[in-house]
Specification:
Strand content: 15-25%
Largest sheet: 7 strands, mixed, barrel
Helix content: 25-40%
Shape: globular
Structural class: alpha+beta
Strand order of the largest sheet: 1-2-4-5-6-8-7
């Protein structure tokens, strides 16, 4: 018993010792090692939406060959009285909406739209088995609506599906473009320009069968070559990786003034979308508060323009828009032919290019003696001086330098050699149409002249480059005021011309009985004056023309924005006034 008790005692003591060892070992194992110093991994900073520049989705332009023509077969069918599409093709083609016309209602008809090749509609393509209308058709454009050869817009019904992810299909005839390839050239050169997005284009051979006219041929009629250009809308924004529900407006005549009498909130009792659209046509939203906020900032001269641009615009986008259009001599891009886009949750606004069928036309206009040319001030940066945003921006030396740098960058990319290569590529398609009906009937140039135009077009960009450089040295254009009667005298006044180098500017003023200003027609002349007005002794009743030319100390000249139109053409830098028999004065365009 004693031995058993002793063993038991030893066993208990052993357990106590072992337990102590276990606790000590456990405590030792649980003591943390000193933590090693860890370097943070490299991470890309989270971007700010309002600091992002516009970036295009370049893979879109690799999906199809835009030069190989696609065939569109369009059958015009009777429409529906209830939705306003019950119009004949003749009625659709009667639509005109020329510059200066307001409140013009579009004329829609219904059609069967089919896609195919020269043999006819193709299986698997849009409209192949359609037996009833699957789209609407209407004439599109403004100036182009005055031509006999029309451009069209096709809008596919939801049930018809989409063609290349597009439901709205613009078919441009380009009746004012002798070459029929300028828009294709414009948008291909635009691809990859920093801070801008381009639009997909496609040469299209269009056939139309008019079932609304019993006297029309009972078959498809060849309407020749068109250029299909992607329509900027919500789907366009999504396809190009942009904000689909962002604000989008098409500029019809917008120089970035506030336009309080037209640009209103949709909740304003005086809001009229048609009046609104005379300036900016809303494309996908009725909330105009963000647009109005931006326009008010642009026109608030108490705010530094650097602050306005930093908040609402992107310098990369603005300089690219100006430089690209200037190098392509696309003068009609200051107040129209562009879109304004603003992403959701961003205050920024971006310019999107639209319509380049007037690009690189300087040689052509000279060759064909085109008398309705734009004013000389459209050469170079003065082309944008009438736009409030660009007027304020270009007064800042840093912004002018940024524009100069962008011009140099793009001039190195848009070379005559590159343009010539693209023209040669397009002509493989275009020539087969411009040498036959119906396109040859609307060209306005002989085949010999057309050949000269193709050869010389590429060099228009070099001439434009020189115009840009010179324009930095010239005074900026200005506006002439209405002539008023001051007792037995006439008061002629005009705005001051702005000079980037701060040079003194002198003005030559002339009044004549004829727009030619030949010496024998002059009735008043004042040369080299510093004042921006002239008092002229009252003249006999009749019609008079007057002009002002500004010259800086370096000898560079500039004319006024104003122009007069007569049967002889447009006379730039000139205004007209009439003195009536009773001595009153009237100002006419």
């Amino acid at each position: 018993m004693k031995k058993r008790g002793l063993c038991l005692c030893l066993l208990v003591m052993l357990c106590v010792v072992m337990a102590g060892c276990t606790r000590q070992e456990t405590q030792t194992e649980q003591t943390p090692e000193p933590e090693a110093i860890r370097e943070p991994v490299a991470k890309v900073p989270v971007g700010n939406l309002s600091e992002m520049t516009l970036t295009d989705k370049m893979s879109l332009y690799e999906e199809y060959d835009p030069v190989d023509p696609v065939c569109f077969y369009i059958t015009i069918v009777p429409g529906n009285e209830a939705d306003g599409t019950n119009h004949t093709f003749a009625e659709i083609n009667s639509y005109e909406n020329l510059q200066g016309m307001t409140g013009v209602e579009k004329i829609y008809g219904e059609c069967i739209f089919q896609v195919g090749d020269e043999t006819g509609p193709l299986p698997g393509e849009v409209g192949y088995d359609a037996v009833g209308s699957n789209a609407t058709i209407n004439v599109r454009g403004r100036t182009s609506t005055g031509y006999e050869q029309k451009s069209y817009r096709i809008t596919l019904f939801d049930s018809a599906g989409m063609w290349r992810e597009q439901r709205a299909i613009a078919l441009n005839k380009h009746p004012g473009d002798t070459t029929r390839l300028r828009n294709m050239l414009y948008f291909e050169l635009l691809q990859g320009v920093p801070g801008l997005v381009s639009l997909r284009t496609q040469f299209v051979h269009v056939y139309i069968w008019d079932e609304t006219d019993p006297d029309a041929p009972d078959a498809f009629v060849d309407y020749g070559l068109f250029t299909q250009v992607e329509q900027p809308n919500g789907r366009f924004l999504r396809n190009h990786g942009l904000s689909q529900n962002g604000n989008l407006y098409k500029a019809n005549m917008c120089e970035m003034y506030r336009y309080e009498d037209k640009i209103r909130l949709a909740t304003d009792p005086l809001y009229d979308v048609n009046v609104f659209s005379e300036v900016l046509e809303p494309k996908n939203d009725e909330d105009h508060s963000k647009l109005i906020e931006m326009l008010e900032a642009v026109n608030n001269y108490a705010l530094p323009i650097e602050e306005v641009i930093g908040t609402y615009f992107d310098v990369e986008n603005l300089t690219s828009y100006m430089a690209f259009n200037l190098l392509l001599s696309n003068a009609d891009s200051n107040a129209q032919n562009y879109y304004l886009y603003s992403p959701v949750n961003s205050d920024k606004w971006y310019y999107i290019c639209w319509d380049g069928d007037a690009a690189l036309k300087d040689y052509e206009d000279s060759l064909l003696d085109f008398t309705w040319q734009e004013g000389a001030w459209t050469k170079g940066i003065s082309n944008y001086w009438g736009v409030v945003l660009f007027n304020r921006m270009l007064r800042v030396p840093e912004y002018r330098q940024a524009l100069r740098d962008k011009v140099e960058l793009l001039h190195a990319q848009i070379t005559p050699e590159r343009i010539a290569e693209l023209i040669a590529k397009y002509r493989q398609t275009v020539d087969q149409f411009t040498m036959r009906m119906p396109d040859v009937a609307g060209l306005g140039a002989t085949q010999e002249q057309l050949e000269l135009i193709y050869q010389n077009m590429p060099y228009d960009t070099d001439a434009a480059y020189q115009d840009i450089l010179t324009s930095f040295e010239r005074p900026m254009p200005f506006y002439m005021h209405d002539v008023t009667g001051e007792g037995d005298a006439l008061l002629l006044g005009w705005d001051s011309a702005y000079d980037f180098d701060g040079e003194f500017i002198r003005y030559d003023v002339q009044v004549a009985r004829d727009w030619s200003f030949e010496s024998d027609t002059l009735v008043y002349e004042s040369l080299g004056q510093l004042d921006t007005q002239a008092l002229v002794e009252m003249l006999p009743p009749g019609t008079y023309y007057w002009r002002v030319v500004a010259t800086n100390e370096s000898g560079y000249t500039q004319i006024a924005f104003d122009q007069v139109e007569t049967d002889s053409g447009a006379h730039e830098g000139t205004r007209r006034f009439v003195i009536y028999e009773d001595g009153t004065v009237g100002n006419t365009l």
